[in-house]
Structures are given as C-alpha cells and as structure tokens.
Amino acid sequence: MSLLGRGAVRSDAPESLTVPGCAVACVNDGAVNAIIHARLPAASGKRVAAIMQRLLDSSKFHADISHRGRMTVDDEGLSLHCMATADGVLLLACTAQDYPQRLVFPPAVEHSGSVGLLASIGATGAAASLPRPERQGITVFTPSTRVLQALERACADHEDARARDPVLKVKDQVDEVRSLMRDNIDSVLVNTDKLDELNRRLCRERSKATNLAGISQGFYGSARTTRRRMQWEDLKWKLVLGGIVLAIFLFFTWGWWFGGDDS
User: Which ranges carry the V-SNARE coiled-coil homology domain (predicted)?
Assistant: First the structure.
C-alpha cells in the first residue's frame, strides 16, 4: 500500500526506483537515534535499510561527516548521500549511482531553484520526533504514519530526476536533436545510395540502348546490301532469260529477216 494515498504514483519494483530510501538521525557523541525509511518491499527494502543502518553505525563515517559536512558513499550498487546540519542531525538519501548529485546537493537555492533531496528530507520534521540519543550505538525508531508519509513524499517528489534537472532536460533535447540528425543523415545516405543505384541502372540501360542502336544500324545496312544483291540477281536472271528468248526468236526468224526464199 502506498504511503502517499489514493492517486499517488509509486513503483515498488527495485529496478525502477531511483530513490529507494532515506534516513534521518540525531547524533550525540557516538549515540545515534535514527528513522530509516526503505521504499522497496520485502528483501529489497531490508537490504536498503541495512545499508543505511550500517553506514550510520560506522564511527569512521561519523568522523568523516563531521569534518566534511556532506559526503557520498557508494555501496552495493547504490549511492548514499549524507549531510550534517548545525544542530547535530544527519540527513541520508539512498539513490541509484547515476542519480545527479546536483539534485541532492544543489549549489545554491537562489540559483538552482530547488532545495535538493536532502534538504527536502530535512524539511519533513522527522528529526523533531526523535529523542536525544544517550545510549551508545544506533537505535532505530519506528516513525509515525505522518512522518513516513512526509519522508515518502520527499523521496517520491525527487524520483524523476529529469523532471527536476534542467541539465538532463537539455541533454535529452540534445540527444533528441542528435538522434533526429542521425536519422536525417542516414536517410540522406540511403537516398544517395538509391540515386547511385538508379544512375548505374540508367547507365546500363543507356549502354543497352546504344548497343541496340548499333545492332539496328548494322542490321539496316546488311538488309540494304542484301536487297541490292537480290535486285541484281533478279535483273541478271531477267537478262539471261531475255537473251535466251531473243536467241530462240532469231533462230526461227533468221531466214525471214535476211532474204530467204518464200518457202
């Protein structure tokens, strides 16, 4: 059941949450009282809670955070971001390792326009529900439903990094433009290849047309020569036949033409 109430959007799939948990702790000379909120169900949530508890129980971590004021530790594929406040409160956020740190530790509120993930966790007032720690080591308290809802809201509001980070928005726009340009270049290259192929086809067709024109001219010349030869052969046979007919005619009419007797 979601802590955010009806209509709230939350995914309990471990691979889809970028902010799987948070914690608020009060520290006093090695004594730690903490509220740990793991947003994942079952074994995944216990693992996230154990990672945050182990960090809060580390004396080296307390020494480092008191010196630095804020730090990030990578552990088991997650990033643990911590910030110490002036009144001895530790704010802890567990995120995916690729989560932008500028959303966790914004450079300045007046410039970034966002208080950041840790500051939002601190603004829930969860630390006010913790008693002053006196016993050494870490004591984990079960928070009220109101505190859990406030912590869940702070984490859920920062779940979508792209909706809050203008750098990621610009990067997405650049990636979109780059993808569009890449698609356009690919289309131009494909069209160029098609034009080259079409040009090659036209060259082949033009070569075929040239060859056919040459063959046609050769056939026309051959047909004209053949026709003339056949016409000459026909004329020659006509002359031969005419000569034979003339010879026969002269043979039978020779005497009549050249003074023979009446008989």
Answer: 166-233
pTM beyond 0.70: no
Q: Supply the DSSP string of 184-199, one letter for each residue.
A: HHHHHHHHHHHHHHHH
Q: Is the CA virtual torsion 2, 33, 86, 60 positive or negative?
A: negative
Q: Please report the sign of the dihedral spanned by the C-alpha atoms of residue 126, residue 132, residue 136, residue 140.
A: negative
Q: Residue 217 is which amino acid? A: Q
Nearest to 18 by CA among 137, 100, 112, 87: 100
Quick check: 82 and 98 in contact, CB under 8 A? no
Per-10-residue mean pLDDT of the chain, 263 residues long, equals: 40 68 91 93 90 92 90 90 90 92 74 73 92 88 93 91 66 70 81 83 83 80 84 85 83 69 51
Q: How far apart are CA 74 and CA 96, in angstroms?
A: 9
Calculate the CA 263 to chain-centre distance.
Answer: 123
Collapse the DSSP code of 219 into the 3-class scheme (helix H, G, I; strand E, B; otherwise coil) and give the result: helix
Bridge partners (DSSP) of residue 31 are 28, 137
Q: What does the block give as tokens for 146?
A: 């109101």
**Exposed, middle or buried: residue 90 (CB in 10 Å: 0-12, 13-18, 19+)?**
buried
